[in-house]
Design brief:
mainly alpha, Arc Repressor Mutant, subunit A, 2 strands
């Protein structure tokens, strides 16, 4: 079996045919799953999920933002961001404070511990991303970006 395509995706290709474009999509799905697992493993020792990490990055980059804004920046629903922020607050990485302009509303801030965690993780992420992409030249990266853009447009059009 092709190492770029995991078993479940290979089974699907056997059923629908292994045209190069279909194999590319199955390889992309396999690669995305592997990258996702590595990302989770990078965050897990810190008690972070990818969702919490994204929320903390959003809070840090926009201090004093409302939870709805953090949800928008993180690409999650308002209900989901509530749980993510709960976890960040429990861990001591973020705080909820009354909105100075509307005491009924809350705003979010990263704590010094949250900022320190982001400062610790940033170089690790940079090293990880360089390891993942170090052998990919500019032309190959551009071709991949074009293929991804096409797949995203097609996926959106068919949804």
């Amino acid at each position: 079996m092709n190492n770029l395509i995991d078993a479940k995706h290979a089974l699907l290709l056997e059923r629908v045919g292994d045209a190069p474009a279909a194999a590319l999509v199955m390889g992309l799905l396999t690669t995305a799953r592997r990258i996702d697992a590595e990302c989770a493993a990078l965050l897990e020792p810190h008690g972070l999920s990818e969702g919490r990490f994204a929320a903390l990055l959003a809070i840090s980059s926009e201090p004093g933002a409302a939870p709805a804004r953090i949800a928008e920046r993180s690409g999650v629903t308002r209900a989901t961001v509530t749980g993510l922020v709960d976890g960040l607050v429990r861990a001591g990485w973020a705080v909820r404070e009354p909105d100075p302009s509307d005491r009924r509303a809350l705003v979010l801030h990263a704590t010094p511990a949250g900022e320190a965690l982001l400062a610790e993780l940033a170089p690790r992420y940079e090293t990880w991303l360089q390891r993942l992409t170090g052998d990919i030249g500019a032309d190959a990266a551009a071709a991949c970006a074009d293929a991804l853009a096409t797949m995203q447009r097609n996926a959106t059009a068919s949804a």
